[in-house]
């Protein structure tokens, strides 16, 4: 759990204990009603001090001093930690927006092309394709159900049909772009996408280090196929997460994403009706 949240909870617990103790203390010592005692405890801890109710006895004054000493610090701790938590949440939202912008750029430049290649040579793609025809009517539950289905999909590619030369050329063309993404410090907080970038870059290196890419022995082809399947699996799952983000936050971007859906064979960027 976030240490800031833990600290806030501790302050809140202490604050309520002090508040309850103060209320019952004033009820007993000053013979106040529950409402008056609670009111007096609040104005004392908040240092408002309206003066309409004040301790009439010596023990009551001493108790009020103790309540101020313990309550004011606790009250300020609650306010400070709650403010810090709200600022932290806002900062996290800003970082997430930046990360999703980067993810969108990745799919525009690299991800959608790779998905098109991999789905073309995936013998099991039809079992997954029908689940990924995303529409504007999808709910959070739909995204969750499909995400669970994808975990059971057997990602595969027919490596002998894939043009490794073309794949290598495309990835080399995008190598500088991928390197710049990996250098982006914002992405360090997005573990799943960072892992996707690493696997894509690793595949690029594997293909680059082979001179005669068109005449690889079968064991080496299977090794490359394993790297492709790893990228394929992460690509699909990250794409689904990104589509949910677009639907929730950017309807106009989501509209284009649906019309360029790599899993929808009828998809077209041209609006016909």
Q: What distance lies between the first and last C-alpha atoms, to the nearest angstrom?
A: 49 Å
- β-strand percent reads under 5%
Sheet/helix structural class? mainly alpha
Number of strands: 0
Which spans of ≥5 residues are poorly predicted at pLDDT below 50?
none
Question: How many whole angstroms does the radius of gyration measure?
Answer: 30 Å
Shape: elongated
Protein model, in words:
Helices cover 71% and strands 0% of the residues. With 273 residues, it is mainly α. It has 2 domains: 3-89, Helix Hairpins (Orthogonal Bundle), CATH 1.10.287.70; 93-259, no CATH class. The radius of gyration is 30 Å and the shape is elongated.
Question: Key terms for this structure?
Answer:
single chain, 273 residues, Helix Hairpins, 10 helices, 71% helix
Quick rundown:
This protein is an all-alpha fold. The model has no long low-confidence stretch (mean pLDDT 87). The chain contains ten helices and no strands.
Question: What topology emerges from the helices and strands here?
Answer:
Layout: H1 3-29, H2 34-45, H3 58-120, H4 125-129, H5 140-150, H6 164-173, H7 175-182, H8 191-208, H9 218-249, H10 251-259
